[in-house]
Amino acid sequence: MTTMKTTDSSGDVRLSGISKTYGSFTAVHPLDLTVPQGSFFALLGASGCGKTTTLRMIAGLEEPTTGTVRLGDQDVTALPPYKRPVNTVFQSYALFPHLDIFENVAFGLRRRGIKSVKKQVEDMLELVQLGEQARKKPHQLSGGQQQRVAVARALINHPKVLLLDEPLGALDLKLRRQMQLELKRIQTEVGITFVHVTHDQEEAMTMADTVAVMNAGRVEQLGAPTDLYENPQTTFVANFLGTSNLIEAEVDTKSGDDIVLKAGGGKLVLPEARCSAPTTAGGRVLVGVRPEKISLTHADDAGEIPEGRNRVTGRIADASFIGVSTQYVIDSPVCDELAVYVQNVERDGRLVPGAEVVLHWNPAHTFGLDATQDIDAGIEEEAV
Ligand code: ATP
Asked: Which of 21, 22, 92, 215 for mutating ligand 1's site (highest number of atoms within 8 Å of CB)?
């Protein structure tokens, strides 16, 4: 099996103050970003946020307006694409239709004048699990198989960094999911740096170690998928990655490591460490909680809810049974429409539209955001 694992930093991607403007329009605001050698990094954002432009500046296909691109210790800002130790896989994989799969993969080696390509090509085809397909033509392969040929064709050049620009965009959903796992496996096996551009949050979270969420030409937040999901720092990230309930609240007091907030006539508790907004008394905070963190109890049983949980009363406005869970929409004094997802383990038949309920959750699952932001940022973009 081919292995290119290294422990050096020659595959680090370092962007310093890199930006791109077109006339008076800024596609990418000055950006500092380091992608460590060997990581699977995703640039995630809605259409037009500047992720492809950022990737193209790394590839050398777009000249930055300001800033530098370094690969390892080398400043490659002035180098043309073919002199950079990177390869790009695009959504349209553009294989050579008249060449068979073996020759498509061998192409980069032959162009460099390498004569004995057999072992390398075979290893590469094995890596992408297409050893059996070597003598087929591209049109005889499925979309997913063709995309794997495109990956093999890029990897055979031993790039320090592989850039992937929406590589799974042309595939149907099922194949996309399969290929996500496949690409992750390949990346782990070869150990080189992958920088992947996608608008699909699930795709970014499935594959990448680190995700940079971009919005309007800026990185809003960067971190491991779980960190971004559990601790969003902005309303855009909270709404773009999954669903968040955001409740407008006012800081009341502090109690130990917690902040106590007033919301809709009740009190909510938020660990101070999980609040990215100022926490002075009287200040406004958006209190966030994910729908699956909330439990739903019929109002008649409210006495059974353990002490120490955040509680909000409400009425079920809508309930959608989707098999694995039931998704409720709750009208409440703190917020018009709160989303609650309940796993279908033991279903309470009383939890139907019109029922009075108490929503409750562990305060540790609460996050706090600056209330001066647009509460709906990132919601429409999710559907792109
Ligand atoms: P998509 O997923 O739709 O490709 P993106 O996040 O990758 O979106 P970019 O392609 O990086 O977005 O484009 C960022 C912004 O820059 C967009 O508003 C786009 O219209 C603009 N833009 C890109 N290329 C040019 C160009 N050559 N001239 C003018 N504006 C451009």
From this structure: 22
The secondary element (H helix, E strand) that includes residue 55 is: helix 51-59
Q: Are 18 and 31 in contact (CB under 8 A)?
A: yes
Q: Is 27 in the pocket of ligand 1 (CB under 6 A)?
A: yes
| Count of domains observed in the chain | 2
Atom of ligand 1 nearest to the CA of 55: 11
User: Which pTM was predicted?
Assistant: 0.89
Nearest Cα residue to atom 9 of ligand 1:
50
Q: Is 169 in the pocket of ligand 1 (CB under 6 A)?
A: no
Both 292 and 183 in a single domain?
Answer: no
CB of 48 closer than 6 angstroms to any ligand 1 atom? yes
Pair (184, 261) in one structural domain: no
Q: Which residues of 313-326 are buried (b: 16+ CB within 10 A; e: fewer)?
A: bbebeebeeeeebb
pLDDT digits (tens, 9 = 90+) for 240-273: 999 999 999 999 999 999 999 999 889 999 999 9
* pLDDT computed for residue 369 by the predictor: 97
Neighbours of 226 (CB within 10 A): 9
* CATH number of the domain within which 265 lies: 2.40.50.100
Distance (Å, whole) CA 67 – CA 29: 10
Based on the fold, state whether residues 220 and 265 are members of the same structural domain.
Answer: no
Domain termination residue (choose one: 172, 196, 230): 230
DSSP annotation of 275: B
Same domain, 151 and 28: yes
130 occurs within a structural domain: yes
d(C-alpha 296, C-alpha 325), whole Å: 13
Q: At what angle do helices 173-190 and 143-155 cross, to 10 degrees?
A: 20
What would the pLDDT profile of 272-330 be if each residue is shown by its tens digit?
999 999 888 899 999 999 999 999 999 999 999 999 999 999 999 999 999 999 999 99
- Answer whether residue 1 is part of any domain: no
Contact at 8 Å (CB) between 190 and 2? Answer: yes
- My answer on whether 63 and 135 are in the same domain is yes
Tokens of 311: 């509680």
**Which domain range does residue 22 map to?**
13-230
CA of 27 to the centre of ligand 1 (A): 6
Q: Phi and psi (nearest 5°) for 151?
A: -65, -45
